[in-house]
Amino acid sequence: MKQRILLLAGAFLCSIALQAQTVDEILNNYFENTGGKAKWSALKGVKMTAKVNTQGMELPIIMVQLKDGRQTTSFTFQGMEIKQGVFDGTNLWATNFQSMKAEKSDAEETENFKANLGSDFPIPFLTYAERGYKAELLGKETVDGSETFKIKLTKKPIKVDGVETESSEFYYFDTENFVPLVIESEIKSGPAKGMVSQVKLSDYQEVNGLMMPFSMTQGAKGQPGGQTITFTAIEFDPAVEDSLFAFPAGN
Predict the structure, then answer these.
(1) N or C: the chain end with fewer CB closer than 10 Å?
(2) CA distance 170 to 150
(3) Closest of 159, 166, 201 to residue 186, by C-alpha
């Protein structure tokens, strides 16, 4: 009996080691096929110019993300600049669509953002192990006709209504080119709580030696009405002013 238990334990440990190796093989292929870890690690910032069709109108969008965690998404509507998901290094804020004034996010949402600050740029798998993240291979799954590897990425916990909650995302990597085609995560709060957020990535193109998706469709999994963002230009290490992220004075 003792020998059998030891054999089972050995087989279990072996399966864990093989699984971890398989995840790392997939990720290493991803990095190799998209430009290499050195190039990804050297990035200090990304500026993406895009357009999105909404309610019959085409809106230009500018998205900026920096390695230190600062970020912003902005577009112009009826002559007014609207900003969403802005982080200035301290505050997380956005333009309120009703009042058209800048409003800071509540304390919990801000702390949740800071919990994984800097870990997701430029891609969360770059240093996931060093940051305490966990990547698990869940097998293969066919997505929109493409065979993919399904990988669960467990990040640092967040709080939902004061309760510490697991924060995880599911990535579907194409088995042929090893690029992510879909990213999914459960919506933890708000009107869509319990639904699954889904982002579909396509039209990969090379930008200064790195492969980037030039089309991104966002929406709720299994629901109609997903919104597609088409990128028209992507710039690495852009020169930007601190004022781009700053919370407006007087708000």
Answers:
(1) N
(2) 7
(3) 166
Q: Are 158 and 188 in contact (CB under 8 A)?
A: yes
Whole-number Å distance between alpha carbons of 87 and 105:
10
Q: What is the CA radius of gyration of the chain?
A: 20
Measured CA to CA, the distance from residue 121 to residue 65 in angstroms comes to 8
Pairing mode of beta strands 80-87, 210-220: unpaired
Q: What is the C-alpha separation between 117 and 89, in angstroms, rounded?
A: 10
**What would the pLDDT profile of 127-161 be if each residue is shown by its tens digit?**
898 888 999 999 999 999 999 999 999 999 999 99
218 CB contacts (<8 Å, ≥6 apart)?
197, 198, 199, 200, 226, 227, 228, 229
Which residues have CB under 8 Å from 28's CB, separation 6+? none
Q: Is 46 helix (H, G, I), strand (E, B) or coil?
A: strand
Distance CA 214, CA 229 (A): 8
Residue 211: its H or E element: strand 210-220
Residue 55 Cα to chain centre, angstroms: 26
Coil, strand, or helix at residue 151?
Answer: strand
> Is the pTM here over 0.85, yes or no?
yes
In angstroms, rounded to a whole number, what is the distance separating the alpha carbons of residues 87 and 81?
16
